[in-house]
Amino acid sequence: MSAPDPVSDAGIPVTILTGFLGSGKTTVLNRLLRQPSLAGAAVIVNEFGAVGLDHLLIEASEEQFTLLDNGCVCCTVRGDLVATLKELGRKSQAGETPPLSQVIIETTGLADPAPILHTLMAEAELMARFRIGDVVTTVDAVNGAATLARHSEAAKQVAVADRLLITKTDLVPDKELRDLRQRLRHLAPTVEQVVARNGELDVDLLASRPSDAAADVTRIAMRLEAVAHHDHGCGPDCHHGHDHHHGIRSFAFIIDKPVVGGGFARWLDYVAALKGEDLLRLKGLVHVTDEPERPLVLHGVQHVFHPPARLDRWPSEDHRTRLVFIVRNIERETIARTLVKFAAIDAASIASPALAAA
Questions:
Q1: Which residue has the higher pLDDT, 21 or 154?
Q2: If you average pLDDT over every residue of the chain, what do you get?
Q3: Confidence class for position 33, pLDDT limits 50, 70, 90
Q4: What is the 3-state secondary structure (H, E, C) of the chain?
Q5: Could you give all domains of the chain from N- to C-terminal order, each with its CATH number?
Q6: What number is the average pLDDT over the span 119-139?
Q7: What was the pLDDT predicted at 138?
């Protein structure tokens, strides 16, 4: 494992605003861009199709706005995205535009957010200037349940989100909204839900938040544990009565003993090569034997992993390794076996605070 860089909160956050067709992304963006907290934000809108229209509805100044309209940002325009971000950073640094506080990427309704995260993690020059912010996914309360049932893209947009915004809630009965929120909790048990009522939005929905990877991993693991307690300890098969055709599930491992860096690096390579397409997101805080007082922070999306970085110190008295997975069609036991085989981790030291499936 190569020597990682120290973790820093520096960097302009790149927030991804995604959501299925018709879920209200453009309306949300327009409302939020009026807020003072987003005064220094730049907007990148990706449209897919021969004639794009959504960008005409964005109420942003010319210097704030960039349109990527020659393909889907998840595939053909990733090079354009890299060039656009570099140019935004250059202009801000040179004083040609106002100071850049944040970048918001609005994706097409059919986009998979994972390749955008790939792009950010794979470009060292970008990561020197930018950092990954939140993935915010809009869900239409009127059509959300049917969309999730029919379209795997919508389910993945929800599963990889950091925050969910449920729109058009004033158009559905309360029971229908409760049912949708419950469905979303089963699909994405660690994800914060925000409800928009009568078009009113949380003004901080897209606001920049400090980068604290250790706190993020700990929060998610604790939320998974809370989900397990809420479901009365019914165990891994708890949700078999719910929609499983997407095969998306979340689980966390807590490892009591320090891990050997070389073996752990081999395990990461193995998992990325064998299971990368279905490893939707991985976050981790790792206690490594060579520098036990400086934990490693991991962030991976499918087969791409950000270079591991070290914290200067542990954020709490709890020095156990914590790994959080969001996967598709991968069983917890499969990951556990690979940890034992390739990372030389004692099976008895691996615990799971919770498991949730959808």
A1: 154
A2: 75
A3: confident
A4: CCCCCECCCCCEEEEEEEECCCCCHHHHHHHHHCCHHHCCEEEEEECCCCCCCHHHHCCCCHHHEEEECCCCCCCCCHHHHHHHHHHHHHHHHHCCCCCCCEEEEECCCCCCCHHHHHHHHHCHHHHCCEEEEEEEEEEECCCHHHHHHHCHHHHHHHHCCCEEEEECHHHCCHHHHHHHHHHHHHHCCCCEEEECECCECCCCCCCCCCCCHHHHHHHHHHHHHHHHHHCCCCCCCCCCCCCCCCCEEEEEEEECCCECHHHHHHHHHHHHHHHHHHEEEEEEEECECCCCCCCEEEEEECCEECCCEECCCCCCCCCCEEEEEEEECCCHHHHHHHHHHHCCCCHHHEECCCEEEC
A5: 12-195 (3.40.50.300), 213-357 (3.30.1220.10)
A6: 84
A7: 93
